[in-house]
Write a structure and sequence with these properties.
Blueprint (H helix, E strand, L loop, with lengths): L2 E5 L2 E3 L5 E8 L2 E12 L6 E6 L5 E3 L7 E6 L4 E6 L8 E11 L3 E6 L3 E5 L2
Parallel strand pairs: 2-11
Antiparallel strand pairs: 1-3, 3-8, 4-5, 4-9, 5-6, 7-8, 9-10, 9-11
Length: about 120
Amino acid sequence: QVQLVESGGGLVQPGGSLRLSCAASGRIYNIYGMGWYRQAPGKQRELVAVITSGGITNYADSVKGRFTISRDNAKKMVYLQMNSLAPEDTAVYYCNVDLLAAIRGRGDYWGQGTQVTVSS
């Protein structure tokens, strides 16, 4: 059974920073792309940032220059460093990983989500 567990969300003031972490566990043979998505109340889930197995990154225009995605392949983890947070960044943030698992084979897996609230 593959699990993705996120951590690091919380309440932060505008201009502040948070670092999200996502750990993959279970019978995993290989991890390909890793990414972060977010969903604000009443809105569709949207891509925030992705990183390939080779370290190539891509960001939503709204977070470029403020957020940084990184990964640790040995630890099967992906991170999202969020700086200069603004109220419009408030959302539930989800980790997404494209991986090859022992039973299900290759597919997309999602974490349970972690709430990020930016408010004074």
